[in-house]
Specification:
By secondary structure, the protein is mainly α. The chain contains one helix and no strands. The protein has one helix spanning 2-34. Keywords: Membrane, Transmembrane, Transmembrane helix. The chain crosses the membrane at residues 15-34.
């Protein structure tokens, strides 16, 4: 159970990290369009 919990936690962190990267790129594109 502990190993599965660690894998799940690690997967959630990587998912959140990729989502933050997506938000960052989206924000940069919006800035270019506005400017």
């Amino acid at each position: 159970m502990h190993i599965l919990d660690l894998i799940t936690l690690r997967y959630d962190v990587s998912y959140i990290h990729s989502f933050q990267i997506f938000i960052y790129f989206f924000f940069q594109c919006c800035r270019l369009l506005i400017a």
